[in-house]
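Appendix B. Chain record.
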Amino acid sequence: DSLSINQRIDRNGDLVTVRGQVPLEAGVMGLILDVKSHSLNLDFLADMVPGVFYTAGTAELSIMVSGSLEQPQYRGYAHIKDGGFEYLDIPGTFQDITGTIQFRGDQMVYEDFKGVFNQTGSVAMEGYMYHTGWEFSYYDLDITGEELPVNHGAVSGYTDGNLKVVGPYFTPSVTGELQVYNTVIRYPFYWPHEPPGEEPSPFEPHVAVTLKPRGNVWVKNNNFEFLVQQGSLQLDNRTGYFELVGEVSSRQGSFHYYNTNFRLMEGRARFLRFNESIPHLNIRAQTRIQDTRVNLHLDGPALDMNIRLTSSPPMPEAEIIDLLVRRGGLGRLLSGDIGGVFLDEFWRLVGEGIHTGFIMPLETSLEEALGLDEFSLYPSLSRGEEQLSLHMGKSLTDRIYLTYSQTFFGDRPYRQLGVEYRLLDNLILEGFLQDEGHFQIRLDYSIPF
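Structure tokens predicted for this chain:
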């Protein structure tokens, strides 16, 4: 026995015709349904697909459903235009989606799917989705993206890349490589799983995606900022939460310590699995106070680092700390100048705002215009210590790197021309020509552990 169907369904002007027969007994073959529409509104999918809370677009479709109620088979096509959707675990909106779905038995073949992500990024997809009964069961998709804007958790920037999504519908494996650029990553790292107040998503992908810096990728918090120049990280959630795993290094940035801004000379950050994205840091930074060069060495987990200070000319560490402490607001506090403390803190915040909002974009533009690998400006507006620091760098070969540093407006202007020659990956010969013809040679050897 079967039920005959011949229906014309009008959904607010969207006409859908359904013709055929439906068996009344379970497990009986004989299901035949012919479904057609010239312009079906897809907004109803938000109520049918788990984890999706917004859909848009229209579909021209012609689908023949056969088999049994328990194991339907599909033949036909659906042409999608002006599509869009939002998903709980994806921080953004997909829009202007076009493409064709070919229905072939238990397969849905995605052909020439293209769309826009967060208004500016372009996305393309092809591959298969499989169904068991009336439900999706398995992915096999290849996704590419360009200029994808990301603003979620600790990350704000852009990425290009390729992803492979394979596996069960709710727990697929997501792998691939994303090239990250024009991006700021805040530390400590965090990546919210679902929006506050939302029901937990049924979608639990196993993510292992490699992140590679392509240019202008900064890691920042209130005490440091550095440009990621080498290495890569993996965004991984196979431990049950999202974490970063891998190693990155840099020779450009700054570190704020003891009321003093140090310029990064060399820094490495290793992110180990099962460590909640807390990196092991190895940092060497430098600053000048009057005629003294102060070197800052930090090593260990970011929350419990070993700190060592040296100087040239040599000074006991206690005297170096005293020299740092008596600069700026902290020095004024020790001398009882409370008003000066607030003024120094005000000007420090103003300087940081100028650097973040104006100077950093200018640095990137000048690097590209001048063909430099490094161009950084850092203003200091503390009373009595007003100055502007300039640092430039250019790679001549894979092993030779030229640097130039200069300070402006201070009581003791400073200039330095340097050359770095990388003898080995962890052995660098450095030479510096300073004011008044002073020349220094230094050999740097780093031991990773």
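Further analysis of this model is presented in Appendix C.
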